[in-house]
Amino acid sequence: MIASESPSTHHVRAFCVGQAKSGTGSLAAMLARDHRVAHEPERSETLDLIRRVHDEGMQADAIRNAFLERDRRLRLEYDVAWANQFLLPHLVTVFSQARFVVLIREPASWLRSIIGHLLSRTIPDEVRGFLDWWFRPDEYPGRRDDERLSAAGLYSVDAFLAAWVRHIDTCLMHLPEDRRLIIRTHQLSQSLDMLASFLGISAASLDTSRIHHNRSTFDGDLAAVVDPAHVQACIDRYCQRHIDDHFTEAPPRPDTQQQRTPHD
To answer: What is the pLDDT of residue 220?
Structure first.
């Protein structure tokens, strides 16, 4: 257990723990006009910290000191980063008054976006070096249906969707209900009042002109790299319980080929 500091010493009021490509860039942009926020602050250092915490057994006092030193230095009100998901048990304890916004995205749409992002963007070296740890290719090796993904240097559909499930499981396990707000990516623009109330800010301080920030640069067809039937079979295998809990209003068979959202 990590000891927490006095709340008066903290600057972060809330962390966003959305999965990558779930709208974290849009959320940070919406807050940026009137609040002190950063999207993926000190990403390289954070990814290094995650590996030291998980792989090297970093001691509780050292974790706490690293968090609090960064908090004092950056003085952020809102820390928005997909990497926060890997530090949740420690963030919850050290920042005992902070709240957590959990962005979750329908899995077929998310899969298209994360694959498209990896195919169409230049991935920073520190993220590239983190991908194997994140997606666990040894645990979820590519199968025959993943051959085109493998040829493109990407992971299996199983690996991607297992990571999607781990993100939600981790948030539900470690975040107390009274300190978390779950927002579905496709409902972000309809959730502004709820978000503002949860954060204790005025809804007018959210810059709605930035809600479509960080659109995808991928214009391809997911079916060109993976069979939609394979995608759907994997979604059924891994994701159905979370679809039932969080996406009851979504079509049971989403379009896995050309589905787009403003948060791609």
So the answer is: 74
Q: How far apart are alpha carbons 126 and 203 in whole angstroms? A: 35
Number of Cβ within 10 Å of residue 263's Cβ equals 27
Assigned architecture for domain 7-246: 3-Layer(aba) Sandwich (3.40)
The DSSP code for 154 is -
The CA dihedral of 66, 71, 77, 83, to the nearest 10 degrees, is -20
Spatial distance between the Cα atoms of 214 and 231, rounded to a whole number of angstroms: 25
Q: How far apart are CA 168 and CA 18, in angstroms?
A: 9
Q: Is 176 helix (H, G, I), strand (E, B) or coil?
A: coil
CB-based contact 108:209 (threshold 8 Å):
no
Q: How far is residue 60's CA from residue 40's CA, in Å, rounded to a whole number?
A: 23
Domain residue extents for the chain: 7-246
Mean pLDDT by 10 residues, the chain (264 residues): 43 96 96 97 97 93 96 97 97 96 97 95 95 98 96 97 98 98 95 97 94 66 92 97 87 42 49
DSSP tag of 94: H
Query: Rounded CA gap, 235 and 232, in Å?
Result: 5
Residue 85's DSSP bridge partners are none
**Nearest CA-CA partner of 24 in 79, 86, 91, 92:** 79
> In the structure encoding, which two tokens stand for residue 191, read together?
């959730």
Between the alpha carbon of residue 140 and those of residues 80, 100, 134, 190, 196, the distances in Å are 28, 29, 11, 36, 39
CA distance 97 to 78: 13
